[in-house]
Every structure is written in C-alpha cells, then in structure tokens.
Amino acid sequence: MGADFLTAKAIGNRIKSKGLQKLRFFCQMCEKQCRDENGFKCHCTSEAHLRQMQLFSDSSTKYLTSYSTEFLSEFMKLLSRRYGARRVSANLVYQEYISDKLHLHMNATHWASLTEFCKHLGKEGLCEVDETEKGWFIKWIDRSPATLAKQEAVLKKERMEKTDEERTEKALQDQIRRAQEGAGKDAVQETSELKRDATAEPIKLQMKTTFTAKPFTKAEPKKFNALAMASKKSVFASQGVKPSTTIPTLGAPSAKKVSAVEQIIQDDLSRKRKAPFSNPNQEEKRRR
Questions:
Q1: Are 129 and 121 in contact (CB under 8 A)?
Q2: Residue 28: what pLDDT?
Q3: Which of 35, 40, 72, 102 has the lowest CB atom count within 10 Å?
Q4: pTM of the entire structure?
Q5: Per residue in 195-222, pLDDT tens?
Q6: What are the E-state strand segments in 55-198?
C-alpha cells in the first residue's frame, strides 16, 4: 500500500485531484470525486456504489435529514464565526463554505438551490433574509444565552425608565388638576390673539423719574484784599518771620500749627540773621 502511494501514477492522480472538481461528478454516498464523466460512469457501476445505494433506498429520509442537518450546522457555524451579526451576501458565504474540498454538497440535502436554503433560514427565524437586485442577503440572529441575557437587561432598563417617566407625568397631571380645582377652573383657558379696534385711541406712555438735575454753577475765584496782605507782610517783617509767597487756593488743606518750642527757635534764628557781623574778641571785651 505504501509503495502504491509513492508511485508516479498515485502522485499524478493526487495532483490532478487538487482543488474543486465538478459537482455533477461527485458521489455523496461514497464521498468520491470523479474527474470526468467516464470515471463517474464507471463508479456508478461499481459494486461498492451499488451497496451504498441499496442502503440509501432502504432509509432515504434518514440520510437526507442527516445530510441537511449537517449542512445547516456547518453553514451557520461559518456565518456566525466569520461574519457575526453583519448583513452579508448569501452567495459570498456559500462560496467560502464550498472552498473546503471535503465539504458536504447541497445536492445531498433537502434544498435544491441556494435560494430555497435562504428562504428556509428566514422561515425558521435563524437569519434576517432580504432579496435585492444583487441577490440574497442574510444576517445572523444571535440567540446565545449570554446575548439573550444582555438583551433582557437592556429591555428591563428601558421599561424602568419608561415607568419612571409615566409616574412623573402622572404626578404632574395630578398637580395641574388639583391647582385647577383650587382656583375653581374646570379647564385651562386658551390663549387668544390680541386684537385692537380701529376706533380706539392711541396708547400714550408717560415715564416719571425721581431724579432731578441740579443747575450747574461756575466756581468763582476768591478775591484778595491788597491792603490786608500788605499789613500782614509788615507784621511778619517786624516779627522776623518770612511771609509765605503762595496764595491759598480753594479746597487746600490748612497750614500746620507751630508749637511754642518751634516758635522760640524761629525767633532766635531771626535775631541772629539781623545782628551785624562782629569779632569774637570784641565780644569778650565788651562782656568784661
């Protein structure tokens, strides 16, 4: 057996059988792929194939149901794992499914075409199916326990929020009703448009203000008496105090009061300024 497997003929046959072959030359009962019509005809007349067909004729429904269940399971497994809950073309999923050489062929199932299989998926609620100009499109419906629990939690939260809103709305309506009953009104008055007759007098508005503006008065300069100023200068000269040359202005702060000690110091300084220059020796003689 090992020697036959490594022969040139066996290797050539394996090279020729690589990839997908024609579906009409495939026998699902024997799971054998023939390369041409002559090979498929020889296989159908073989003893092994006849035995398998005898088994199939005895319980055909059993085999068809088994193949259909296996095909549906493998197809849905590929759809859920590869595409998830996305909307995808059914032909694209089928082409990826049959890329495996050992896949189960559709002609061995209850469905004769991909269209019938898509309709079955929609009828059983396994997928969302819709037909377009580009063909059939399917979307897997996730019914796993984790997903169902998550959806139930979301629905429960939405119901709770809706219940809270209804409760708040009902409380508001009760408050409005009680307010209307307390005011003695059975219904809320409807708003009406403001209309004015053509014969009505014009509306006048009078605006009164409590603020009264004071009249503006120009500040007059202070008048000074020349004789009084001259008399003051003569008094300052007799006392030895230099008069101030600055003229007092309105609003200026009053001069600082001089203390008794400062007044004595100022008088002493003024006497020294008025005394003539004298020699210290002459002063001593005069004192003697």
A1: yes
A2: 80
A3: 102
A4: 0.45
A5: 777 676 777 777 766 656 566 566 666 6
A6: 87-89, 127-132, 135-140
